[in-house]
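If your schedule permits, I should be very grateful for your opinion on a structural question. Thank you for your consideration; the sequence and its tokens are set out here:

===
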Amino acid sequence: MPLLLALLITLLSPLSPAWAFEVTVVQSSMAKPYQEVHNSFSQELRHRLPRSGLKAIASFQENSIYLTKDDQPKVTRSLVLSQSPDLIVAIGQQALAVVSPITTIPIITLLVAVPERVSGPQDNILNCPLTTRPGQALKEILQRLPKIKRIGVVYDPSRSGSKIKAIKKACPDLLFIERPISNSRYVIKETESLAGKIDLLLMVPDITAVTPLTESTYILFSLQQRVPLVGFTAQHLKRGATFAYVFDFASMGNQAAALASKLKKGTPLTRLKTPDYAASRLLTNEIVAKKLGLQLPKEERP
């Protein structure tokens, strides 16, 4: 009888591996964005899964693996498989490359731009998108600065033509003054040609138009012409951009946790739907906005 009782206690324990929803998180590095996504995922999933009472039989247990340049993919894969997780979360491209040969366990990927290039199409992989909604940054800025009508943008059509087209389609009421280039040496000339013709200068992720050397051109133009500059990283904001539309890493982790929670509750991976676009937010450089004389509604300031 004591043996039977001990067996029942073990099986019904919230910490019992037999009942736990086990997740293995493989993280490409300790870089801050990866860590922020990871932390928010873990916290949100713990919040979503019950922690007390009878329902706590389905508790959440996490194993974390942090990759280094010296790691051997086969060895890491063997470690993941030895843990027999119910779910694998791959954060970053390197992590996905390591775990993608595993086809028998559901995998959720984060911070991977084009997972198909790493793993090919796989039914057990669900990717949280890393693209922003076209034109969303401009729409949010227009809520604060409704008089803006003319948007200047320097870009390489071979790299960003489709992106600019999508932004224009999303913002049909705006006039886009485009300066297409094929080489970064034309950035200064084309940016200067926008003087007096635009209300806002937009930077897009384009390795021809936006480089560490050309960023200062856009920032200087913005300050001299007194027009707001929109970047796409927090560093752009620190260096002098007026706004930056950036990924919201904490919200990305929360989105992945919501998917994991549904998977835990029995929804098949193939029926889970990821968001259409990555979670993002608009940041404002208050000091630069003041220098440009922008009147931002107080209630809209972060």
